[in-house]
Design goal:
With 356 residues, the chain is of the alpha/beta class. It has helices spanning 15-26, 43-59, 74-86, 98-107, 220-225, 235-251, 254-274, 305-314, 339-354; strands spanning 4-5, 66-71, 90-95, 112-118, 140-143, 145-146, 151-152, 163-166, 183-187, 198-203, 278-280, 292-297, 317-318, 329-332. The strands form 4 sheets. It has a 7-stranded mixed beta sheet with strand order 2-10-9-8-5-3-4, with helices on both faces. A 3-stranded antiparallel beta sheet has the order 11-12-14, with helices on one face. Helix 3 (74-86) runs parallel beside helix 4.
Length: 356
């Protein structure tokens, strides 16, 4: 039986990236040494890191003046590093989910935080609109995709102050106008690489503007100057991430990836909207994530939730249980998830409906 991996993270990766990593674990770049044992300062691995930055810039059309960093600590560490490096007195945050809320909470240690809008009142089932961003804030922070609740900001907004975004779970899923952001960051374990590495895209001219002293490891300038090699970086995840970028490029780049993702998401959303047994948790189609598709049983079939979970599991669906704060089901349709997996889930939903 084929297994269909819908886990929200760590999640599905391209088979080619996994295979290349397996090979490198045995013999990296014909050195006779495992990738797990290679020096991060060896010319062979430095070449991998350099290729990673080059592919980031190529695939996202990153303009001059930006650097790509590969760091440890996950996106959660960035919740702290962002205000450390960018907040003098005040920052603005859009609260659209658990991770956005956690980022906002960390910023409170560094100054005044303005919550410009929140969808918490409705269990984060929409993206707030019509809010005002204070122009005297040092930056405005957004989380573009909300993995737990299934909402997504799909357009790059215009902002009068520096814009910073957590793109952990939708990076490379759609084109991004990087020039509109001073910093973009994300954990790798959704669309890029195994957990353990964090990507940061930062405008160099935006750094060094805060009045506070910044500890060495928490200063982005440290890592820019050292080309992400100030301390030992997560070697294996970086290598796998580079293989993922090669895979995206071979598919036709981010534009092609977006078309594939939209097609997968539409296929599943159409079935959720059609099938009498299920309802979406996000009603506004403009707010629906194309990366994390959340749905629950219709009220009249609520008692069949566990039955459907067991049925879907028998059909090879793995990782579709919804987050405990939402319940129901969540299908994460990240870049590397084949369309065939979405088709298999839709077929299971149809078959389950026909049996009841």
């Amino acid at each position: 039986m084929k297994v269909h991996n819908f886990y929200a993270g760590p999640s599905v990766l391209p088979e080619s990236a996994i295979q290349e990593t397996k090979n490198a674990l045995d013999n990296f770049a014909n050195t006779g040494i495992s990738l797990m044992s290679i020096s991060h300062r060896s010319k062979e691995f430095v070449a991998v890191a350099e290729e990673g930055e080059r592919l980031f810039k190529e695939l996202l059309d990153i303009p001059d003046g930006y650097r790509v960093l590969f760091l440890g600590g996950g996106a959660s560490s960035q919740f702290m590093m962002v205000p450390y490096n960018f907040m003098n007195k005040k920052a603005a945050y859009l609260n659209t989910g658990t991770w956005a809320n956690k980022a906002q909470k960390e910023a409170n240690f560094f100054g005044e935080v303005v919550e410009v809008a929140s969808s918490k009142d409705s269990l984060y089932n929409y993206i707030p609109k019509g809010y005002n961003v204070p122009t005297d804030a040092d930056y405005f922070h957004i989380t573009t995709n909300n993995t737990i609740y299934g909402t997504e900001i799909k357009q790059d907004m215009d902002c009068k102050i520096p814009l910073i975004a957590d793109m952990s779970s939708d990076i490379f899923s759609r084109p991004v106008d990087v020039s509109k952001y001073d910093l973009i960051y994300g954990g790798a374990q959704k669309n890029f690489a195994p957990s353990g590495v964090t990507f940061v895209i930062v405008k160099e001219s935006a750094l060094g503007r805060v009045e506070r002293a910044i500890p060495t490891m928490l200063d982005y300038r440290t890592h820019v100057k050292a080309d992400s090699m100030f301390n030992t970086p997560p070697v294996v995840p970086i290598f796998t991430g580079v293989q993922t970028l090669k895979w995206i490029k071979a598919l036709g780049g981010v534009d092609a990836m977006n078309k594939i993702n939209v097609a997968k998401a539409n296929l599943l959303y159409d079935e959720i909207d059609r099938n009498k047994m299920f309802v979406p948790t996000i009603n506004d189609v403009n707010d629906r994530s194309i990366m994390n598709i959340c749905f629950v049983m219709s009220p009249e079939y609520k008692e069949l939730e566990q039955d459907f979970m067991a049925f879907a599991t028998e059909k090879g669906m793995i990782g579709i249980k919804g987050h405990r704060s939402v319940g129901g089901f969540r299908a994460s349709t990240y870049n590397a998830l084949p369309k065939e997996s979405v088709e298999a889930l839709v077929a299971a939903m149809k078959e389950f409906e026909s049996k009841k």
